[in-house]
Design a protein that fits this description.
With 466 residues, the chain is an all-alpha fold. The chain has 26 helices and no strands. It is found in: Cell membrane. This is MHS family proline/betaine transporter-like MFS transporter.
Length: 466
């Protein structure tokens, strides 16, 4: 006798069959039909739609972080343009202080963009964030130097950096939530890894341009006009990203929520009332990403040239090589987190940083260019274990109704306190302690806190989105 699917056993078998079709071979469901029409998977999302989501998330996040890369890599030149009357180290600290101040507004931006993303929609929030960011970045290129307008030059730079910090606070979180909500159930880690990959690609282009400009132009030319060129590129790239995003629809899970009239009026209030434990865990988990990202991938060229005496162009080249390998490692980490779980990979990253960071920085001080490149590749690979897993980990921690808000607030709060301040703190620690290993100890401390936070959280990689 054939068992009816209305029985418990038949029902479970049907559910297992449906789940298998979604999770074990998503490529089969996303492929085109013989007639050339797009075939949707069981969630109703087709391959072309997902490709657009990936492209929009990549380009938007790329533009956001390209600016941060250029500012960090050209910090020495920016110091000469905006703080010419200060001694080199003081001027550099002032430049990084402006970098850090722009991060202080990011928690506020996290609340605003999170509220818009959870209440109105992810697409709307992301479209506006990239428009504001690209416009602000373009404006930096138009600021006159200190020699032309005096103290107003750094004041204008500060104002624009604050606008950038506000807009950037909605990008990383929104793009990650968007990708996770569109991704097949068993590939959320891989899809979300697109966000840190695009971030690293923005850094990579910034590093390449900085190396090219410093190699081709004289210092006087760099200070007069060369440093402005990378910032001018933000306008066309931002318009392209916004155009792609306006052609997308919101994610299926958010549309379902909106259709059921289940979108809440105050996501922030619900976040603090019902999900404050996850919020604390998320802030701690982000700490290693916040410090590690800006120390290893943004501050490193300045550290190598100013603190260790490496040739400026060589320091850019070393960081560029590390970034290329970092991008490749990111996707491997995303797939690894889908297979092993988010917690295992994040805990592994923290343990590696606790034991290897100080020895790695000691090897950087050898002055051997090949050793420096290998060490940076090692540090970048270790960082990808955290960075490639974190977007899916944070998105899965919070339910759909507060996902954007929870991600944005936790990510930006940790980055505001510890990420944007990392280059400044590293420079300050070296100046006060006299030790070039000070940034390594700071990074190791961040890894300890992240380890505790992740260990206290719940594994979510195998669970459906709430």
């Amino acid at each position: 006798m054939t068992q009816s699917n209305n029985t418990p056993a038949g029902k479970h078998a049907t559910e297992r069959s449906a789940t298998t079709s979604l999770t074990t071979d998503p490529a089969r469901d996303l492929g085109p039909t013989l007639s050339g029409q797009e075939r949707p998977d069981p969630s109703g999302v087709g391959r072309k739609t997902r490709n657009k989501v990936v492209a929009a998330s990549f380009i938007g996040n790329f533009v956001e972080w390209f600016d941060y890369a250029v500012y960090g890599y050209l910090a020495v030149t920016i110091t000469a343009v905006f703080f010419p009357e200060s001694d080199p180290q003081t001027g550099l600290m002032l430049t990084f202080a402006l970098f850090a101040i722009s991060f202080l507004v990011r928690p506020l931006g996290g609340f605003v963009w999170g509220h818009l993303g959870d209440k109105i929609g992810r697409r709307t929030a992301l479209s506006w964030s990239i428009l504001i960011m690209s416009a602000a970045t373009f404006c930096i290129a138009l600021i006159p130097s200190y020699a032309t307008i005096g103290i107003w030059a750094p004041i204008l730079l500060l104002i624009i950096r604050v606008v950038q910090g506000f807009s950037a606070s909605g990008e990383y979180a929104g793009a990650s939530a968007f990708l996770v909500e569109y991704a097949p159930a068993n590939r959320r880690g891989l899809y979300a890894a697109v966000v840190p990959a695009s971030t690293a690609t923005g850094l990579l282009l910034g590093s390449l341009l900085a190396a090219l400009l410093t190699g081709l132009l004289e210092p006087g030319q760099m200070q007069d006009w060369g440093w402005r060129l990378p910032f001018l590129l933000a306008a066309p790239m931002g318009l392209i990203g916004r155009y792609i995003r306006t052609k997308l629809e919101d994610s299926p899970v958010f549309k379902e929520l909106a259709n059921e009239d289940n979108v809440i009026k105050a996501p922030v209030s619900m976040l603090f009332k019902e999900h404050w434990r996850q919020l604390i865990q998320a802030v701690g988990a982000v700490l290693l990403n916040a410090v590690g990202f800006y120390v290893i991938l943004s501050y490193m060229p300045t550290y190598l040239s100013q603190e260790l005496g490496l040739d400026e162009t060589a320091s850019y080249v070393a960081t560029t090589v590390a970034l290329v390998t970092y991008i490749g490692f990111i996707f491997l980490t995303g797939m690894l987190s889908d297979r092993l779980g988010r917690k295992r990979v994040l805990i592994s990253a923290s343990i590696l940083f606790i034991f290897l960071t100080v020895p790695a920085f000691m090897l950087l001080d050898t002055g051997n260019f090949l050793v420096i490149i290998l060490v940076q590749i090692l540090l970048g690979g270790m960082l990808t274990l955290n960075d490639g897993t974190l977007p899916s980990y944070l998105a899965e921690m919070f339910p759909t109704r507060v996902r954007y808000t929870g991600f944005a607030v936790s990510f930006n709060l940790s980055n505001a306190l510890f990420g944007g301040t990392a280059p400044f703190v590293a420079t300050l620690l070296i100046a006060t302690s006299g030790s070039v290993l000070a940034p390594a100890w700071y990074l190791m401390g961040a890894a300890v806190i992240s380890l505790v936070a992740v260990a206290c959280s719940v594994e979510t990689s195998k669970k459906p989105l709430a």
